[in-house]
Amino acid sequence: MEAAMAEALLRGEIEAQIAAARAIGNLNTMQKKRVAENGAISSLIMMLHAQHYDSIEASLFALLNLAFGSERNKLLIAEAGAIPALLKIIKWRNESLMELSLAALLILSSCSRNKLEIASSGAIQLLVELLDSLSQNVGSNQAKIDVVSTLHNLSTSPQIIPLIVACGGAIVLIRLVYELDKSSDLVEKAMVLLESLVSSSQLALNQVSERDGAIEMVVEAVEEGTAACREHAAGVLLAICKSSRETYRGLILREGAMPGLLQLSIDGTWLARKKAKALLLLLREDDDNSSLSSSSSRGKHSKNAVFKEVMRKIDRAGTSLQMVEEMIAKLRT
User: What's the rounded Cα separation, in Å, for the pair 153 and 149?
Assistant: First the structure.
């Protein structure tokens, strides 16, 4: 059956090719392996170049089915020339075909041996520009998630990060997240990528820290995001503050970061608590800077005292979560 399917893809009329491509979705793992070995992948890539919607759609679904769960097939699909074909389809901006192509590119980007080929194909510039366009024109949420996830997959190769930053990736992420609900899956994925960029690139760190409203937006993500979003938002703030405590400590404090970070330091994951506590230590006011010369400074001194007490209780075994949260509430007033 697999040989006949591969033969139909290679030599059949267009309707036979479409039927064979669609049938791949019904195959089990071993059958998919055999149909790939019989040359089906090259035939499916050829179908991507056809000027026929149903042919392209069927080929994309088939390639997704073959790539899913198979590192070998992901590599074979890329080697057969899928990447430039997918980018060409993405540029057409046909919504349904674009989304299928983005999903295929996302799967291919999860294979470590494909990352540099994808990066060198011009995909990063296209993806960053597409993300910017989709965010401005209220495009498909799934398409945005797939673009951000693909860029994140690529960013796990350190040599690719400078290219993402040079293409404006950090700036586009800030623009994307600014008006979104900070508890959304899209913001979570964007914050994961943003931390990766600012932690590895001085240029990205400068672009984020100097962008109007960016620190405020990241502080909001610490307060309102999902568990993963809060962790990575704290990581972004930590990278910024570590780069120049003197420059950014006051900016971060003025945006009201303290309560959210304190909360994260007691109810976050182990890594989230570690990042939050490291940042809190950087934000803590030095004792020799606490002046009582005005009512304003007295208020700051009072909050600083509350903050230090909360930190002591967080580090003290047996302190109840309710007691610490009550003290954090004082910092929010």
Answer: 6
210 SS3 class: coil
Question: Of 65, 70, 46, 57, which is closest to residue 19 (Cα–Cα)?
Answer: 57
pLDDT tens-place string over residues 229-287: 999 999 999 999 999 999 999 999 999 898 899 889 888 999 999 999 999 999 886 64
Alpha-carbon distance of 64 to 107, in angstroms, equals 8
Radius of gyration of the chain (CA): 25
User: Are 176 and 217 contacting, i.e. CB atoms less than 8 angstroms apart?
Assistant: no
pLDDT at 317 over 50: no
| Region of residue 140 (phi > 0: left; psi between -120 and 50: alpha; otherwise: beta) | beta
Q: How far apart are the first and last CA of the chain?
A: 71
Residue 249 token pair: 């400590």
User: Measured between alpha carbons, how far is 56 from 45 in angstroms, rounded to an integer?
Assistant: 9
The answer to whether 300 and 292 have CB atoms below 8 angstroms apart is no
Closest C-alpha among 136, 155, 252, 247 to residue 199: 155
Instruction: Give the sign of the dihedral formed by CA 311, CA 312, CA 317, CA 320.
Output: negative
Contact 322, 249 (CB under 8 A): no
- The confidence band for 2, taking pLDDT boundaries of 50, 70 and 90, is confident
User: What is the reported pTM?
Assistant: 0.87
Torsion of CA 112, 116, 121, 127, to 10 degrees: 70
Q: What does the DSSP 8-state code read for residue 244?
A: -
Res 289 pLDDT > 60: no
156/140 Cα distance (integer angstroms): 25
Q: Higher pLDDT residue, 146 or 3?
A: 146
pLDDT of residue 324: 56
Measuring CA to CA, which residue among 94, 118, 100 is closest to residue 108? 118
Nearest C-alpha neighbor of 123 from the set 137, 110, 105, 104: 105
**Structural tokens at position 328:** 């954090």
Tell me the three state secondary structure of residue 52: coil
Task: For residues 219 and 67, give the distance between their C-alpha atoms in angstroms, rounded to a whole number.
Answer: 39
